[in-house]
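In the design runs reported in the main text, the only information available to the sequence generator was the tokenized backbone. The following block is the verbatim input for one such run; it is reproduced so that readers can re-run the procedure and compare outputs position by position.
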């Protein structure tokens, strides 16, 4: 993500530009690749997302937005983005006049997701927003309302929903291969470093590990069961003497109860390395370890026989290009994304309940 200054934060909160839609907004004629503007030129944007446009069928990189002029120059030249299609955070609203941009992909610290989503929608652009969708459920609701008012689509960057092993696990559950889901166990964490990074800033991140890596545990529990939790328990473990955790939490263990009676035991951590889940039913289980990493997923299953490795059905695209193209295809065909704004809102509502359960030491109903 880009470094965030007070000037940037103030700029993000200023009036959001001209009303109305640009001429030729979403000129999504069949056969045309839709243009993305990448907003925020940090590691994930520049090293993971931007190179994947070369593999897309319906999407292309059309513009860049950053608070760092040197990044705009470096990546603009690397990807052949003209200076007219490079924007600072302060000049971003001028994107309303750029018909080459159909979609803005917001890849900034969490607290900036809402203002930039609202500004993009007001400029007549569809929005892809990284997860977590925002710092609060109220912010998520405002983002959904802004895109609805503008008649623009909103999608959240849940890339694992487009990854082959995760697609296979969901299919096995939906097809009844496990019988009714009874338990999900999912652990996600990594050892975080620099205490000065934005992820450890409470105002920018909205929280600690749960608002970052922990959302993979929560979202996996929801998409594996296909249900929404009705009750939450949680327990936090944080060493406040550690300079990394002066403002945000380290470990949160949380449990979810679903309407069917299925349960999920979940871990979110900034001081342990884990990335896995197992979903179980009366007929067997499926596990992926690593489960939601950028690459290297491995699946094992026990389905009526001894446990064995399992290869998923091949997918035509990797998770990143598939995610980018999914929103473009939805715009071109009028369909709704499988991970729209409502999906992000549901996660934030549960996250708020998890924090409350940990803080108050009690079960919180949803």
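Verbatim output:
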């Amino acid at each position: 993500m880009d470094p965030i200054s007070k000037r940037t934060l103030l700029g993000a909160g200023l009036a959001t530009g001209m009303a109305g839609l640009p001429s030729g907004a979403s000129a999504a004629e069949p056969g045309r690749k839709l243009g993305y503007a990448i907003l925020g030129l940090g590691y994930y944007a520049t090293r993971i997302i931007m190179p994947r446009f070369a593999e897309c069928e319906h999407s292309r990189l059309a513009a860049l937005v950053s608070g760092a002029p040197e990044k705009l120059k470096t990546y603009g030249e690397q990807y052949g983005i003209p200076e007219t299609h490079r924007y600072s955070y302060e000049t971003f609203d001028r994107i309303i006049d750029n018909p080459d941009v159909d979609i803005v992909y917001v890849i900034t610290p969490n607290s900036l997701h809402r203002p930039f989503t609202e500004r993009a929608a007001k400029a007549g652009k569809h929005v892809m927003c990284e997860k977590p969708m925002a710092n609060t459920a109220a912010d998520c609701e405002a983002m959904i309302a802004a895109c609805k008012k503008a008649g623009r689509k909103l999608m959240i960057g849940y890339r694992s929903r487009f990854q082959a092993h995760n697609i296979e696990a969901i299919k096995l559950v939906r097809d009844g291969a496990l019988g009714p889901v009874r338990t999900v166990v999912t652990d996600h964490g990594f050892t975080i470093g620099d205490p000065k990074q934005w992820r450890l800033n409470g105002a920018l991140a909205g929280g600690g590990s749960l608002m970052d890596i922990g959302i993979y545990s929560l979202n996996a529990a929801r998409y594996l069961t296909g249900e929404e939790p009705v009750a939450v328990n949680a327990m936090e473990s944080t060493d406040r003497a550690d300079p990394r955790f002066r403002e945000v939490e380290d470990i949160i263990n949380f449990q979810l109860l679903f309407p069917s009676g299925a349960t999920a035991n979940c871990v979110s951590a900034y001081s342990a390395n884990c990335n896995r889940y197992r979903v179980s039913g009366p007929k067997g289980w499926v596990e992926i370890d690593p489960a939601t990493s950028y690459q290297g997923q491995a699946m094992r299953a026990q389905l009526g026989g001894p446990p064995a490795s399992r290869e998923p059905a091949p997918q035509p695209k990797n998770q990143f290009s598939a995610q980018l193209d999914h929103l473009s295809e939805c715009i071109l065909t009028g369909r709704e994304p499988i991970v729209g704004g409502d999906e992000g809102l549901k996660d934030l509502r549960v996250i708020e309940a998890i924090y409350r359960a940990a803080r108050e030491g009690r079960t919180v109903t949803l």
